[in-house]
Prior knowledge:
The structure holds two protein chains of two kinds. By secondary structure, chain A is mostly beta strands. Chain A is built from five helices and 17 strands. Chain A has a single domain (3-403), classed as Beta Barrel (Porin), CATH 2.40.160.10. Helix content of chain A is 11%, strand content 52%. Mean pLDDT of chain A is 89; it is low at 1-29. By secondary structure, chain B is of the alpha/beta class. Chain B has a single domain (15-131), classed as Periplasmic binding protein-like II (D-Maltodextrin-Binding Protein, domain 2). Chain B contains four helices and six strands; from the N terminus they run ββαβααβαββ. Chain B has a six-stranded mixed β-sheet, with helices on both faces. The longest helix of chain B is centred in the middle third of the chain and has 14 residues, at 74-87. The chains are: A mainly beta, B alpha/beta. Chains A and B meet through α1, α2, β1, β2 and β3 of A and α1, α3 and β6 of B.
Amino acid sequence: MSMYLILMNKYRYAFIGVSALFTFNVIAADDKAADPLNIHGFIAQGIIDVDDSNFVNNDGEISTELTEIGINTAYQLSDDFRFAAQAVYLNGGNRYSDGFRVDYFLMDWSAYSSEQWQANVYLGRFKNPHWLHSSTRDIPFARPSIILPQGVYFDGLRDIAVGGDGGGIKLTYNNDEYGEFDFNFSRGKSPISSDAGEVITGDLAQGDIEHELDTQASIYWRPVFSQWQFGFSLLDSVFNYESESLDLFADGRFDFQFYTVNAIYEGEKWEFTTEVFQSRFVTDGFYVSQFHQDNLGQGGYFQTRFKVNQKLTLIGRYEKYYSDKDDKKGYQLEDRTFGKVPHYFGFQNDAMLGLSYDIHDNFRVNAEYHWIQGAARLNPIVLPNPEVNKEHWEVWAIQLMYWF
Amino acid sequence: MVLVMLIGSPITHAVDVITNITADTASITTAQLRRIYSMRQVKWANGVPITIFVLSSTNLTHQKFCKETLRLFPYQLDRIWNKLTFSGMGIAPTIVSSMDELIKAVKSTTGAIGYIENINEVSDVNVLNIDE
């Protein structure tokens, strides 16, 4: 009897499968396709306080300028074509211009699909998929902290870095021996509103910044059944500044190249993340017509998260950034500007501790404290303001978020 | 009406994987299941699109399925799904509120996949044999 049960157990799945195959035509008539329409959204509101910098506001008071609201829809037009769009409202004070934005608006063509390979082509306005958190930087519950590491995710360049209008390709490959590979490539142009331009250049610059087509690529690799994932990304971008007739600034061109390398370990309790980068920023003109500067900036962060239990996660992170690797303390910058720009505008280091608590399904609170030294990632980036920005400054923030 | 009996069931089951019968498969590997749930394989071998139904990530069956069957932690899948949903790059599984609802959805949706636990009898679905 026991042998009978063992055999039946062994072959029950085969029996079930064969039975099911024979009945395919009978049951298929009752089946329906998955719902083609999906709607999701989120709403988050917080309070933030910054002392000794204009990161959020100029008066140093506690601020409610920490609002992020979004709604998105996706519609499956056919097996291979899908439409997706998201609109967001963001208010981050001085961090970026506040208001509504069409975050993405794209057509996704599933060009090829098999058990090993997937190829998707995206056309329209797409999110930047290349850095670890670039596509979810405004999604409060899908990023690790309220304020992301400013070296990579500089809020002043948010509207440029968040995505673009153009096209992208995503290729995924699964190999049972070597693991999972993702390859992303995109060409696009970011529309820069006059408000967003003012965040970068300040209100003294009267002209407009325009973004030429940029090219980005990234590769990610996760070994078979591994807790680790590794990736790197490349970006090449050009911006032009067109001055007005009564402008304090001249026409200018900014070449920006950005390379990142990242790694993640995702354990049951512990999680480790690092993302390091080098950026090349070439400035021609702008300050005066003959001006030329070619800086190599570097930075990176190490972050750890510890899941205390199902609801509570602690986070700690340390980040370093300097805008010129040959002037890490910024003293050459201070000399070059005859002392008008203090040396601490050449770097920015951030030590952060925080927590995340799930109050209920889809309802979370994040809280964090930052101790920051340096002011290299404060707006307006091209016109440092030493009046309000000190070398040492601190931030605390609490944000409640709900999503569906 | 087809009735499929799970024979010789012990007192407690591991989590079993079920599919809509249009999925046209009787067995699956752990690696393939991971690919499907991490949205890296979106169609079955016969070309039918895969639709995934899951319970909430706080549900114990979901957690058991993630850790023991997929060898992933629920937060890893949440992260992948949120990234796809809120960047427009893909779609995430549909979350249902109970096991009954999940079984019903898998039965009635072309190409659907889901899981069951401690259920001795289920009809009109494939119960897959999981190969290592």
